[in-house]
Batch of 2 targets.
Target 1
Amino acid sequence: MNSNEVFAMKVRLETCKMLKARGFGHLGGALSIVEVLSVLFNDVMSVDPQNPQDPSRDYFVLSKGHGGPSYYSTLALKGFFDVSLLSTLNNNQTNLPSHPDRTKTIGIDVTTGSLGQGISLAVGLAKGFKMSEKSNQVYCVIGDGECNEGQVWEAIQFIAHHQLDNLLIFIDENHKQLDGTTQSVLNPFDLAKKVEAFGLFTQRVNGSDVNVIKEAIALAKSKTTVASCIVLDTVKGQGIPYFEQMDDNHHIRFDETSMAQLDSAIESLEKKLLEVSHD
Amino acid sequence: MIKPFDRNHTTEMRAVYAQTLIDMMSKNKDVVIMDADLVSASGTKKVFDAFPKQSINMGIAEANMMGVAGGLSLSGKIPYVHTFAPFATRRAYDQIYLSGAYQQANFRILGSDPGYWAAHNGGTHTSVEDLALMRVIPTMNVLVPADAVALKWMLHYTEKAYGMFYIRMGRKDYVDLYQEDATFELGKVNVLSEGKDGVIFAIGEMVAEAMDAAMIVKQQFNLDVAVVDVFSLKPLDKESIIKQSHNKKFVITAENHSIINGLASAVSEVLVENKNHPPLRKVAINDRFGEVGTIDYLSKTYQVNAENIVKAIKEFI
């Protein structure tokens, strides 16, 4: 197992533990981005947990803000704050609200939550760095449900027009949104083809495989003067079969059965990590 | 502080906007001008031509424009974002709220041609509610210039300040009120003329109407009416509103904006918390949509001009 795979396993474990501590939360969409978060923060992005405001750092924008729990787990494991803070998710006066807030949490670059807005903020960052001739890179994850928002397409058109090759957009295509499948709520048709039609260099890859994601990022980064997008084929609730198969897995309030499943997932992940550490 | 009142001495606001931005951008590479396909209409083509690396035409995409402005500000830029007032406010409200204010971002929104200034663009392009929408957003600063000198101060002041600012202005000619060396302070009013009988709190283009009205009631009824320019609607100079209303026979508010939740509401909110405040009359646009027409026709139809201020004062004679 390589470092990214181990990191992803840890992120998934901490995400499950923090939702267990609170008893409810956005599990499905948090789990589907574990792999991309792990590759970015463990392997790709230039960030320094000891100097989180470093002006030369790379920026990350979680436009699908409800993925907060796995983002927080990633930041804690990377060393931005203590892992023990994760159990305060959504408590009164916590620094870890459901949706990321840059004024509350160390390591969060951009406040998000109202869908469609994070991508525009990421675009502004990337355009600003270009205007200032700075080399900061910007990474942004949006949801497939989020692509219902017209603002996403305003932003993508702008990205293409301005050739923002310092910005990499990921679409977490987990095929579900709050009310059901994306097909049933509002057919997204072929997201990759749509983005490609705007003129972005677009790849569609297995979003549950850290190695594939890493390769896709490297290929995207090799392209200059053209902006890139990676559509991640993922599963909502990714990595835990019970939650992958659950119909309504956007926001889960754990009952006795689902809590037992969560416990079992935690146990299994802890066991696997122990085995890995002994290898 | 102020010039002798003369309706014939005017300055085009968009020309001042463009020239002031040129002055600022030539000295500060971080100042960025943005527009949503209204560059020619806002008179800023020469700015875009002179500073292509500091200018962004966003296309007709106001929601994205506000978000991008937020992101630019987080990268260290100081964006000045312009479009017509309805599109600068209600069209992109959640973006201004979350990608701007809640984000603790740092950009300036210029909403042009509010109220009767929309003229021949008509009701669809008329905003009578922009001040209401902006002043209810936590931390949002709301500034309304009464003339070109005030606008210049607002543009220069906001270059150095941090936070979110909404600046409301007509594009066309405003009567010159202030001397070039006039002073302004965020959260303060400017008292343009003192008067023992009553006070008019006015905002934007209505300050000139208030000056005119004050002269008319002086000549006709020998009334001494103070005129106060409330250029900083938020933060609001509550102390001066109370002080200027003290012992007056009446208070008038005057604005080219809805009677709901603009200047009239802001002044009322301050006064009702005080005992023995004078009676108040609101010169504002009644709860209605805009329509098409000339500025002269619309200001009469909306009942927001000097004549309407005089009429309101007459109620107290």
Target 2
Amino acid sequence: MRLGLKPPPISCQEVVELVTAYLDGTLSRRQRRRIDAHLADCVNCSAYLEQMRLVIGAAGALKEEDLTPEMEREFRTVFERSREAETD
Amino acid sequence: MPVTGSGRRTLWRRAAVTADPDSDLVVRLRAGDEDAFMRLVSRHHDTMTRIARIHVPSDAVAEEVVQDAWLAALRALPDFRGEASFRTWLLAILVKRAQTAGVREHRSVAVEDVERAVDPRRFDAAGAWSTPPARWDEDAESRLDAAALAGPLRRGLTRLPDRQREVVMLRDVDGLSAQEVCGALAISVANQRVLLHRGRSRLRTFVEAELRAQ
């Protein structure tokens, strides 16, 4: 444990390669602290991280089409078939 | 005792399992409620079709595999104990079916792949930004909302290499966990992270270029 020691600085180019692991929470505590310390001082990397969050959020909001009536009928048939199997 | 760091992740995972968003519908489904079934089908359809399509050669076969998986899931429902989320359990059934039906080979991607998140020419010799990310919020506030990014994002997604697009769609559009994606695509945790990272980084660069061109 090296609590209390200042972590060595990390470059912008390194930060952008660790952004995914940072957001997934899979970095070591030490790596996380290095990035947090960098972000506190770097407006460009903070903007980069914010843009990644925007992209991820916008991807989550992409809407897909609902089931077509034909698909719905097919799945209702699947449901009936599973019930038949139970009463066999 | 769990070691520092991984202990926190275990707790997080446990919390995610207890908050299964499907649990109410699953209770109703166990009681034979067809509407609950249709809502579950609808909720998971895109994800299931997407995963099936990765393993099989056509959309038609993918649709069949999804229906097949639902039939198997309905029959196995009494065995579902809720140890994993319903979705994780359902996707495991689907993947098994899709792999049996599938003919497409798995393409694994080398983890030491040299592709960079950002063009190295945008950094100076010390690794600091020399051409920083273009701000997206300079002209209009509306640019910042998800709806404004939807167009560039959709176009960007079509430009990604297949494997990167698959992982980004499953993680960010469908909201699957890293573990679920690893299971669905039969890839390692490290591979999943590399593909997600490359895909998201390319998407950000693509959106940046489109917004700048506007």
